[in-house]
Amino acid sequence: MSTLNQPKLITVFGGSGFVGRHVVRALARRGYRIRVAVRRPDLAGHLQPLGGVGQIAAVQANLRNRDSVDRAVRGADHVINCVGILFESGRNSFDAVQDFGARAVAEAARAEGAGLTHISAIGADPDSDSIYARSKARAEAAIARIAPDAVIMRPSIIFGPEDDFFNKFAEMARLSPALPLIGGGETKFQPVYVGDVAEAVALSVDGKLQPGATYELGGPRVMTFKQCLEEVLETVHRKRVLMPLPWGLASFVGKLASLVPLIDPPLTSDQVTLLKTDNIVSEVADADNRTLAGMGIRPSTIEAVLPSYLGRYRPHGQYSGTGSEA
After folding, report:
1. What is the rounded distance in angstroms from the CA atom of residue 251 to the CA atom of residue 111?
2. What's the fold here for domain 9-162+190-220+280-299?
3. pTM of the predicted structure, to 2 decimals
4. DSSP 8-state code for residue 241
5. Most buried in the list 100, 110, 130, 244, measured by CB within 10 Å?
6. How does pLDDT run across 14-39, given as a tens digit for each residue?
């Protein structure tokens, strides 16, 4: 644990990933010492410029290896688990990463007497037909037993420079004459900016959030899947056909894609199942102020942020439409 003369030490599992790097940045701004627990520390060098000299250190840890988890947590004042996967591959199953791994982190934090913040997802449900959603729910239940004071964050779909949603469809719009409206495109999302999620996590480390509470994080606008694709097309200055893809056909496509040895399949059948349920902040969380607004965070709009990183998908690059072509 930190002495009175030292800033608190925070261990961030998955700190080199999409959400994790923004969490590291938010913590570094506050002056915390940060230990980033990742499988490949040699690939985490991009985090160093986010803090001062010696403020951020990467250590090796694998959620399937309990000894490595314990070592990464040793001496920490607070632990943050940002690890999550969108599809299964090899030994990285939903159960191994999002259930077993989350329990290992919670047990290690409890043994060390450290606080815990866990990033889950809106839609976590033990009765869901989605394997992803069930694994998230089991992790939440286990954490509630192991570390009752842990703060759980449930974001909606997260957008930002490295996201795997808006970037994916912007790239698809660059190459394809049509974009798929899975299930008709009526599923509702509440896209939330990754920087706002990181700020919420940092507030939990600051001790400004309710211990043992679950917060649901959504942006200022509820959008259908179709509206999300329309926003992408408007941002990248491209006109594409939005082609309805029935649930059954989408699931079949997802199963076929899962059989191809791709690092990042464009779609899986479990993701199709997940899309059948709206992904928005619940009325209960809103009424209890367990939201970004309840924390005092003004959510960033998707219109303000998307052009900052989707510009490269425009026909003439990021300066297209700015007058710079002339």
Report:
1. 43
2. Rossmann fold (3.40.50)
3. 0.94
4. E
5. 130
6. 999 999 999 999 999 999 999 999 99
